[in-house]
Design goal:
alpha/beta, Lysozyme-like, 7-stranded mixed β-sheet, two-stranded antiparallel sheet, 6 helices
């Protein structure tokens, strides 16, 4: 299996920040021979923020992760006017991270926000109906720490999809609790400090519309 390693072990930066070893299944490892980006539909951008999504589709684990990526690709280019999988990274139900579209291209969305600048990370499952898995969460935290370090992205530019497109979506489901409660950033800071953190469980509660 081909894997992208974003860091060689637990690294320590000049500021003393720990950067976790993050292994990612390369696109070449999951993609079929015809699963290539439609280049004329892609828009180049300068990434400056990290946006967390959930797939919004129930996932019982019966479809293997590579096959899910191939299906998502086909849906994206054949049933949507997109040039590729809309996300830059996808985390499956066991915490395996797979590479989506190249970072230099803006993501796509069913909502109306300007996606330029966003690096989009999707956590599989419908997280309004099924639980977030601990393995998914830990992979998400490590990936966010690494991307933030690589691209010099501050904590206040790490958001959920519904923060980028208010009123349009419930995405990323229960993960929004971790963002709103400050748990996600707190756990990222634990990783940066080389300290363990406890995985907290919480239930999804749909936000009430603004008055």
């Amino acid at each position: 299996m081909v894997a992208i390693v974003l860091a060689g072990g637990m690294l320590v930066g000049c500021s003393g920040t720990h950067v976790p070893d993050v292994q990612i299944v390369a696109r070449a490892d999951w993609a079929g021979p015809d699963d290539n980006p439609v280049m004329e539909r892609l828009v180049e951008h300068e990434p400056d923020r990290l946006t967390v999504h959930h797939a919004g589709v129930m996932d019982d684990g019966s479809v293997a992760g590579d096959e899910k990526m191939r299906r998502l690709y086909k849906f994206s280019v054949k049933q949507r006017p997109w040039g590729d999988i809309p996300y830059h990274y996808v985390i499956d139900r066991v915490g395996c991270i797979r590479e989506g579209r190249e970072l230099k291209y803006a993501p796509d969305t069913n909502t109306t926000y300007d996606t330029r600048g966003h690096i989009c990370i999707c956590v599989n499952g419908d997280l309004t109906k099924q639980p977030l898995m601990e393995s998914q969460y830990r992979s998400l935290v490590d990936l966010l720490v690494k991307l933030a370090a690589d691209l010099d992205i501050p904590n206040d530019r790490i958001v959920g999809h519904q923060d980028a497109a208010p009123g349009e979506t419930t995405c990323p489901g229960v993960l929004e609790n971790y963002i709103k409660n400050g748990w996600l950033i707190e756990d990222m800071e634990s990783v940066r400090a080389g300290k363990p953190y406890e995985f907290r469980t919480t239930e999804y509660v749909k936000a009430k519309p603004a008055d």
